């Protein structure tokens, strides 16, 4: 199954077009490799998705072409969620 479709059907990301945009920005990895929206997802794959200041790591448990809301949560298992430190931009001193 395509990555963008899996993210939409599993409801990890609400819309397929948004899933595609996130993948194009390089914010999704499958088994520690940067993934495209068209990448193939298999059962057992580990996905890491960066949402702003948070990285969610999930393992693919099932592949369903379409799933009801109750069944969507069974398609993946959240392994960990980690917050990234907010990096403040460096102060630029123009006075020399």
TrEMBL record:
UniProt GO molecular function: ribosomal large subunit binding; rRNA binding; tRNA binding
Keyword annotations of the record: Protein biosynthesis, RNA-binding, rRNA-binding, tRNA-binding
Domain RNA-binding S4: 1-65
GO BP annotations listed: rescue of stalled ribosome
InterPro entries noted in UniProt: RqcP (IPR025490), S4_RNA-bd (IPR002942), S4_RNA-bd_sf (IPR036986)
Assigned protein family: Belongs to the RqcP family.
Complex formation: Associates with stalled 50S ribosomal subunits. Binds to RqcH, 23S rRNA and the P-site tRNA. Does not require RqcH for association with 50S subunits.
Function field: Key component of the ribosome quality control system (RQC), a ribosome-associated complex that mediates the extraction of incompletely synthesized nascent chains from stalled ribosomes and their subsequent degradation. RqcH recruits Ala-charged tRNA, and with RqcP directs the elongation of stalled nascent chains on 50S ribosomal subunits, leading to non-templated C-terminal alanine extensions (Ala tail). The Ala tail promotes nascent chain degradation. RqcP is associated with the translocation-like movement of the peptidyl-tRNA from the A-site into the P-site.
Protein name according to UniProt: RQC P-site tRNA stabilizing factor
Gene that encodes the chain: rqcP
């Amino acid at each position: 199954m395509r990555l963008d479709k899996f993210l939409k059907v599993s409801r990890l990301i609400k819309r397929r077009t948004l899933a595609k945009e996130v993948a194009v920005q390089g914010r999704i990895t499958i088994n520690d490799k940067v993934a495209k929206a068209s990448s193939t997802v298999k059962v057992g794959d580990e996905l890491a998705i960066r949402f702003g200041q948070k990285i969610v790591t999930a393992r693919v448990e099932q592949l369903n072409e379409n799933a009801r809301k109750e069944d969507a949560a069974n398609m993946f298992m959240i392994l960990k969620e980690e917050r990234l430190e907010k990096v403040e931009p460096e102060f630029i001193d123009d006075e020399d």
